[in-house]
Design brief:
This is Beta-glucanase. Pfam families: Glyco_hydro_43. By secondary structure, this protein is mainly beta. It is built from four helices and 21 strands. The chain has helices at about 1-30, 175-180, 195-200, 205-210, and strands at about 50-60, 60-65, 80-85, 90-100, 115-120, 130-135, 145-150, 160-165, 220-225, 230-235, 240-245, 255-260, 265-275, 275-285, 295-300, 305-310, 310-315, 325-330, 335-340, 350-360, 365-370. The chain is globular, with a radius of gyration of 23 Å. Residues about 1-30 have low confidence and may be disordered.
Length: about 375
């Protein structure tokens, strides 16, 4: 009887060991792979809600900031969420980094629209600075403001500082003096006609918004090797991208900015730098529907930019694999990760994340292929 019990016990031990081994393999697979387009959950088992966001790497940890989106509707009811990770695969919910306000009339009153939050760290001040696209409650997409908030720690809470249009009273560095003297009445032009396109190219909307400041919608942030930071945003009724330098504490604009691709209808900019060359990926303006990505490059961030073909290749490349760019993260191994959102406007909460590696061809030009798991 004792030998029989010993055999049973031994078999039970082997079964438990086998099951544990299987569980370990399954668990490691889950931790090992980034699977785009699936429902992603945090370490507590809750669906990750951080859309249109970006990632900050600080002291060995990644911090993912994004829009908290509701199950229905389009306004912001919670604020900007934050998640942390050491491996880009297992994310811990850190809470609401920037909460909307219950104060009536506040710029970030509950029911406003907060989009595209990005956070950068200022080495000189030791502060974490968040910029985001802000629309005031009940105003639709008319205000087109940039908002800024600050914190002593990466997870927050962030203190809202102010919002407004960008660089009021200041002309772009690359807008010729003769064009600054021109005057237009935008209401007299029919959109998309050759005359309208010429007026846009020469700065019709810049001049219209000069006194109050330039419109700022979809946006990102970039810190260069010299510590200078830049705010890149869609402006001029989403027709033209602007690249604006921030002051040393990253809390406001210096007044130096350029326009790139006037009338190009670009939004959702994401930027990175490799081997002294700047690369930007953006999307067209087709609402919540995906479209073909655009690739742009320059040797100087405030210099001349040129546009190249769609960086996405392969099946569904014409719709950016169903997503829209939001951020490009430099990785510790020297690589880069393209981040995009697959929007689901019927329930923005259910929008999915697309994260893919950026590769480079023999000429050093970046391209993106769909990878099911990586």
């Amino acid at each position: 009887m004792s030998k029989y019990l010993k055999r049973i016990g031994h078999l039970l031990f082997l079964c438990i060991l086998f099951q544990t081994s299987l569980w370990g393999q399954t668990n490691s697979i889950g931790k090992k792979d980034i699977v785009s387009g699936e429902v992603w959950k945090d370490t507590d088992g809750n669906v990750i809600n951080a859309h249109g966001g970006g990632i900050l790497f600080n002291n060995g940890k990644y911090y993912w900031f994004g829009e908290h989106r509701p199950s229905s509707g389009f306004t912001t009811q919670v604020g900007v969420t934050c998640y942390s990770s050491t491996d880009l695969r297992n994310w811990t919910y850190e809470g609401v980094a920037l909460a909307v306000s219950d104060e009536v009339g506040s710029d970030i009153e509950k029911g406003c629209i907060i989009e595209r939050p990005k956070v950068i760290y200022n080495q000189k001040t030791g502060k974490f600075v968040m910029w985001f696209h802000l629309e005031l409650k009940g105003k639709g997409y008319g205000p087109s403001r940039a908002g800024v908030a600050v914190s002593d720690t990466p997870t927050g809470p962030y203190r809202f500082v102010r919002s407004g249009r960008v660089n009021p009273g200041v002309y772009p560095l690359n807008m010729p003096r003769e064009e600054r003297q021109l005057t237009w009445n935008p209401e007299t032009y029919e959109w998309w006609t050759p005359e309208w396109r010429e007026a846009v190219d020469k700065g019709m909307f810049v001049k219209r918004d000069l006194e109050g400041g330039q419109m700022s919608r979809d946006m990102t942030l970039f810190v260069d090797d010299d510590g200078k930071a830049y705010h890149i945003y869609s402006s001029e009724e989403n027709l033209t991208l602007h690249i604006a330098e921030l002051v040393d504490d990253y809390m406001s604009h210096s007044g130096k900015y350029i326009r790139i691709f006037p009338g190009g209808h670009n939004e959702a900019p994401a930027i990175f730098k490799k081997d002294r060359t700047y690369w930007m990926i953006a999307s067209g303006c087709t609402g919540w529907e995906p479209n073909k990505a655009r690739l742009m490059t320059a040797s100087s961030i405030l210099g001349e930019w040129s546009q190249l073909p769609n960086p996405c290749v392969g099946e569904d490349a014409k719709i950016t694999f169903g997503g829209q760019s939001t951020y490009i993260l430099p990785l510790e191994d020297g690589g880069y990760m393209f981040m995009a959102d697959a929007w689901r406007p019927k329930s923005l909460l259910d929008s999915r994340y697309i994260w893919l590696p950026i590769r480079f061809d023999e000429k050093g030009v970046p391209f993106i292929e769909w990878v099911s798991k990586w």
